[in-house]
Amino acid sequence: MALRVLFTFFLSIAAIVSAQAQTVDRPLVIGMGLEPPHLDPTAGAAAAIDEILYANVLEGLTRITEDGSVAPALATDWDISDDGLTVVFHLREGVTFHDGAPFDAEVAKFALDRARAEGAENAQPQLFTAIDTVEATDPTTLTLTLKEPDGDLVYSLGWGDAVMVHPDSAEANKQTPIGTGPFRFERWRRGDRVVLVRNDDYWGEPAKLPRVEFAFITDPAVALASLLAGDVQAYPSFPAPESLPVLEADQRFTVAIGTTEGETIMAINAARPPFDDVRVRRALSNAIDRNALVEGAMYGTATPIGSHFPPHAKAYVDLTDVYPYDPDKARALLEEAGVSDLKTTLTLPPTQYARRSGEIIAAQLRAVGIEAELIPVEWAEWLSRVFRGKDYDLTIVAHTEPNDINIYARPDYYFHVENARLDEIIASLAVEADPDKRTPLLEEAQRLITEDAVNVFLFQLPKNGVWDKRLHGLWTNSPIQANDVTGVYWTE
Do residue 152 and residue 299 come from a single domain? Predict the structure, then answer.
């Protein structure tokens, strides 16, 4: 027995040594389709910001893992009072920012107060609405007093919009972000790439990659060529789905088709006639063939949706048959609404899914008597003119934030929805933590949004990942906007 145990011990040691020998200290170049407008996740809605910085450079009190669950980050644990009105976070000791500044409860208080301040640039103010006061009880204890219970608060504080920033460096984070994460920001070569390097003073498990470069490549043909040449070793979201069969047949690569939280919609500005008429909005839904769109724009890799909810979620309701592709019905609804020869605009951000979908949708709308002028814009212009300025008729975009059905109850949101019952449901969801009670509320919310034809719901954006087969640890799914490389490593 003793010899067997000893033999097993030596086998285990040999396996560990072998695994260590196979790990290679090699930099990584990741390809991205969009360049972020700046580098502060707490001051912008662009997904590309979080895709570079979340968990890598900037960390929150909590973090979202690949399976969508909440894990400790700068807070080791937390206590919630029986009435749900007090949440106490216990913070890690000895954490410093990349410039040496200490992280403590006073810094955490500053970060949360800054994010929720009136007039703050934060793109997700609803994450903090339940918070009444934030108190630094002592250097490692942060106490949040709430106006009302918030069943999502611990999860919400794991978003990129709630990462911790220091008062001495926060204002400069758009250009030179300073965080507490396992990577430090090194440089941003505009129009080309952002470079991160390993933080050797990290408080936790050190990164295995010495350097990560996020290269911005918008052309799908160039993306494919860069991958085949080895100039880029990974695309967490490969922009050319038509090339996936070629890559799957190439033994040099791993092709991982996963899910995202990205509900891709044709958003409708209901504040502008004739889109304030539900019959016109329903006509738009009946005019669009989702299956043709999935095949033509996404090469069959996406999943059609009928409301603003991901198909992989427990409470998902399949509502794709509420507005089946029916051009005759679309024409009849337009005639009933007194609309003929409608001329409109369809604003397209620079993402491949939007540009490709726009061409197909314009042809389908033309078939029912709607002439849609395609207006391509860069991402910064889309954010300023469409999202914030609400200056548009129709637009195509994927809402990649997780659990974001509550946007349909926001006053004066960019697609101007109003439904009193929906507002009640979203308010109930904000304070209800029991999954069994949340499910029927989420189901009803999906049906109300679809009944009102608030937007045309197109497809769930897939995560078509492609990377060198010697690379390990990249996420297959995207429960949050992130290219988390904190656990990524190379082997020979």
Answer: no
Query: Are residues 263 and 308 in contact, defined by beta-carbon separation less than 8 angstroms?
Result: yes
Which domain covers residue 93, as residue numbers? 59-172
Q: Using CA atoms, how far apart are residues 474 and 479, in angstroms rounded to an integer?
A: 13
Is 289 inside a domain boundary? Answer: yes
HSE-CB of 374 using CA atoms within 13 angstroms: 17
431 band by pLDDT with thresholds 50, 70 and 90: confident
Mean pLDDT of 293-314: 95
Asked whether residue 153 is assigned to any structural domain, the reply reads: yes
Q: Look at the chain and report how many structural domains it folds into.
A: 2
CB burial readout 242-261, b (16+ within 10 A) else e: ebbeebeeeeebbbbbbbbb
Q: Do both 298 and 417 map to the same domain?
A: yes
How many other CB atoms are found less than 10 A from the CB of residue 160?
A: 27
Q: Hey, how many other C-beta atoms are within 10 angstroms of the C-beta on 90?
A: 16
| Tally of CB atoms within 10 A around 171 | 12
In a domain, 357, yes or no: yes
Peptide bond into 324 cis (omega under 30): no
pTM of the predicted model as reported, rounded to 2 decimal places? 0.86
Task: Compute and round to an integer the Cα radius of gyration of the chain.
Answer: 24
Would you say residue 445 lies in a domain?
yes
CA distance 53 to 41: 8
